[in-house]
Protein: DUF2190 domain-containing protein
Organism: Rhodopseudomonas palustris
Amino acid sequence: MSRELIKSFVADAAIRGYRIAAFHATKQAVVEAASNVAAVIGISTSTGAKAGGVVDVVQQGLAEVVAGGVLARGAEVTSDAEGRAVALPAPSGTAKTVRTIGQVQAAAVEGDVVPIVVSAGSVFIPAS
């Protein structure tokens, strides 16, 4: 049996279906995540929402998300600038903490809708 934790939020701007959602920086609302350091909270359901509307967000459990690039089955993922799931970044010149949203359950390429086990967290990416 699969149980999801789904909560409704007000969308500050339009949120497409199957996108990574994040808390708005200053308002009591949510937005599509726009980076890998956004305060991610879950995945929007298939219907998404218009600006000012209500969006249902899967905060824990099994959901589906749009892939923003090539993903390997079992990969931990974060958000790109469009709220799509992408692989964690490689170490670079600067260390940083990246927000993760879960583990994909199938391989995918950009644009695929892929199942994901939602479990928001973070990971430290060291400097190279």
In short: The two ends are 42 Å apart (CA to CA). The chain has two domains: 5-61, 63-125.
